């Protein structure tokens, strides 16, 4: 079976996300009808599509009619159009004649919702709930649109969603020279790219310390892990990490060991918390089934999962 990726024919056409797995594992990638080789050289195109395309290959083309038995993936057109609709709806809600509640919100009043929606998205990801992920990603996007719309009304320093998007584009392009500028000898795999990202960020933001820019308001385990990650990249010796018998230092040490071992201590701890909560609910359900409304210590031991 071959895979045919059909571009829309637009000059700014992009590859659909659904095609990426096939491209990453393809035996060969060919340029078909309407696709100039040089335009897609970054994908490692092997050449023009031969008369007989071998199984396991991908053909990028604007016309799939010559491949009747192929698995066809079509580029959506245009990508991101619904984002314009979302921005327009947010503008309407915030404008005169829109929603009174939306009109009253400020950056400060919206902070709680940004945190809530972010945690709900995190939970959906942990649960592997695709429908919930789609909904919660939309709710997080709403917060971005909302804050940008509020910012557009600022009398002293206004900016809008286009300014936010433009700054993001500039950042992504600037921190991926290996993709957008013809190559970067410092990048040869995902790990080296992560290091390169931090190096470029340090230069871009003119930071003087390896821990500049770490958000100190994030949850403590995530904060400790981030500090350890940053200082490790800067060559900070492990033996200089905080030592002591107090609770805070002990927690920092456990977090540091986890991060240095390549783990994500925030995720690890959240998974333990979720299992613990599930076990508590299970024990309480078993107790209720036997007519118990409150549990003594021996009841908890009897009903808790082993």
What features would you describe in this structure?
This protein has 5 domains: 3-74, no CATH class; 81-175, Helix Hairpins (Orthogonal Bundle), CATH 1.10.287.1080; 179-206; 207-263, no CATH class; 268-303, no CATH class. Helix content is 53%, strand content 6%. It has 12 helices and 5 strands. It has a 5-stranded parallel β-sheet with strand order 3-2-4-1-5, with no helix packed on it. α2 crosses α5 (130-151), α9 crosses α10 and α11 packs across α12. The chain starts with a strand and ends with a helix. InterPro entries: MazG-like_dom (IPR004518), NTP-PPase_MazG-like_N (IPR048015), NTP_PyrPHydrolase_MazG (IPR011551). Keywords: Hydrolase.
Helices and strands in order:
Blueprint: E1 3-6, H1 20-25, E2 29-31, E3 47-48, E4 58-61, E5 71-74, H2 81-94, H3 100-104, H4 107-127, H5 130-151, H6 161-174, H7 177-180, H8 190-204, H9 220-233, H10 247-260, H11 265-289, H12 297-303
Parallel strand pairs: 1-4, 1-5, 2-3, 2-4
Helix pairs in contact: 2-5, 4-5, 9-10, 11-12
Question: Would you count the extended β strands for me?
Answer: 5
Biggest pleated sheet: 5 strands, parallel
Measured distance between first and last alpha carbons: 49 Å
Oligomerization: single chain
Strand order of the largest sheet: 3-2-4-1-5
Helical amount: 40-55%
Q: Per DSSP, what share of the residues sits in E-state strands of 2 or more residues?
A: 5-15%
Number of domains: 5
Q: Remind me, CATH topology of the largest domain?
A: Helix Hairpins
Q: Helix-strand pattern, N to C?
A: EHEEEEHHHHHHHHHHH
**Helix/strand class:** mainly alpha
Name of the CATH superfamily of the largest domain:
MazG-like
Q: What is the count of helical runs?
A: 12
CATH class of the largest domain: Mainly Alpha
In the CATH hierarchy, the architecture of the largest domain is: Orthogonal Bundle
Q: Report the mean per-residue pLDDT as an integer.
A: 88
**What would you report as the Rg, rounded to the nearest angstrom?**
26 Å
Shape: globular
Keywords: Hydrolase
Domain NTP pyrophosphohydrolase MazG-like: 105-180
Protein name: XTP/dITP diphosphohydrolase
Organism: Lentzea albida
């Amino acid at each position: 079976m071959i895979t045919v990726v059909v571009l829309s024919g637009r000059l700014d056409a992009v590859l659909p996300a659904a095609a990426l797995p096939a491209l990453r594992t393809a035996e060969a990638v060919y340029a078909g009808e309407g696709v100039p080789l040089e335009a897609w050289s970054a994908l490692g195109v092997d050449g023009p599509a031969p008369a007989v395309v071998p199984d396991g290959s991908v053909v990028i083309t604007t016309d799939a009619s010559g491949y009747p038995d192929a698995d066809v993936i079509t580029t959506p057109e245009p990508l991101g159009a619904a984002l314009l609709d979302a921005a327009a709806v947010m503008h309407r809600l915030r404008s005169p004649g829109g929603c009174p509640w939306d009109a009253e919100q400020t950056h400060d009043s919206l902070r709680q919702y940004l945190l809530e929606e972010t945690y709900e998205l995190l939970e959906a990801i942990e649960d592997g709930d695709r429908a919930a992920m789609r909904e919660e990603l939309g709710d997080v996007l709403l917060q971005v649109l909302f804050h940008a719309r509020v910012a557009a009304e600022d009398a002293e320093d206004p900016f809008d969603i286009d300014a936010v998007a433009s700054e993001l584009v500039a950042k992504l392009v600037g921190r991926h020279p290996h993709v957008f500028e013809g190559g970067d000898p410092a990048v040869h795999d995902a790990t080296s790219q992560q290091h390169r990202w931090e190096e470029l960020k340090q230069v871009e933001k003119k930071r003087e310390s390896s821990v500049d820019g770490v958000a100190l308001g994030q949850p403590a385990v995530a904060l400790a892990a981030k500090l350890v990650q940053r200082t490790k990249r800067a060559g900070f010796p492990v033996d200089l990490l905080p030592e002591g018998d107090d609770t805070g230092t002990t927690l920092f040490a456990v977090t540091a060991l986890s991060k240095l071992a390549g783990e994500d201590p925030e995720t690890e701890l959240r998974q333990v918390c979720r299992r613990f909560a599930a076990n508590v609910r299970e024990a309480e359900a078993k107790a209720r089934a036997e007519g118990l409304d409150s549990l003594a210590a021996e009841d908890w031991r009897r009903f808790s999962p082993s």
